[in-house]
Amino acid sequence: MSNSPTVKRRRLSAALRQLRVESGLTAAEVAKQLDWDPSKITRMERDEWKRPAPHDIRGLLDLYGVTDERRRDALLALARESRQRGWWADYQDVFRTSLPDFEAGSSMIRTYEAVVIPGLLQTADYMMAIFRGGQVLHETVFERHVQARLTRQEILRRQDPPTLVAVIDEAALLKMIGGRDVMRDQVRHLLELARQPNITIQVLPNSVGAHSALDGPFVILDFPSPDDPSLIHLATLTDSLWLETPEEIQRYTLTFSQAQASALPPGESVRYLSELHERLQQE
Question: Which residues pair with 194 in a beta bridge?
Answer without folding.
Answer: none
